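User: Show me an example of a complex going from sequences to structure tokens.

Assistant: Sure. Here are the input components:
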Amino acid sequence: MIGDAARIVGDLTSEGEIEVQGTVEGNIRSRRVKVGEGGQVHGEIVAEAVDIHGLVEGPVVAAIVSVARTARVIGHITHRELSIEPGAYLEGRRPWRLHPLEDLKRP
Amino acid sequence: MFNKGSESDYSGSESMSGPSSQPSASKGSGMPSIISADLKVIGDLHCAGDIQIEGTVEGDIKSQTVTVGEGAHVSGSVYGQTVRVSGNVKGQIEAQSVTLAKTAQVSGDVIHETLSIEAGAQLEGMCRRLQPGGKKSAGDSKGSDLKASPQGAPKATATIAAGSAKAGAGENGAEKPTAG
């Protein structure tokens, strides 16, 4: 959990879940990632499941991606399952992959 | 249409709160940030509120309150108002109030106004007292004697009793021969 007062400049790696309410300037690799409404990620997110309510500036690669109405994503979203709530702001392509994470490992 | 049910494939995952222990009481406006045990951060952390480290941080930490949990590893400097260490810190600690719990392993200098070291804590490095105004104490040169000791010297094991011990640089210089 990265609280709203926190700012991380660098990369985060986790086997579990990361919830970002603050600011991360760097890449995130985790099983699950949630970017809260006030959260900001400037970097790449690679995870099995990503739930975005805040700002993401950078590519997102995940099997399951949920983009909420409050979200703002500037970057490509590589996904297998994508859901976008009306009101979400998306800039970038959203390519579909059967195995987005495996494809990432062997480009 | 849009709901969290779509993530149910990952039923094996833990709840968002994670396995980490209860966060310390928040003094800042926001919620405390927790770097849980399975999280590794390579980079610097800045936090206006409280931060609790249970995982690994390779970088500097600046925050109001910093708690380094028992299994945590920090390689970098730690700056804060209040710093409590129960885990492993390799780097300098600078804070008004520094507490080293009995499980703490610190290699690096500790710059403090108030220092408390529980029996059992391992501290390799010198302790310097910060004057309440923010200036480092005049006895700095004495403190540096600790650092001058050879690298192969045994680890100094703090023997200051639990509780709040106000250690100045001068006191530490005198304490060193008996420690370890």
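The lines above are the inputs; the final block is the predicted structure for all two components together. The interface with chain A takes residues 1-2, 4, 6-7, 9-10, 13-14, 16-19, 28-36, 38-51, 55, 58-59, 63 of chain B (CB under 8 Å).
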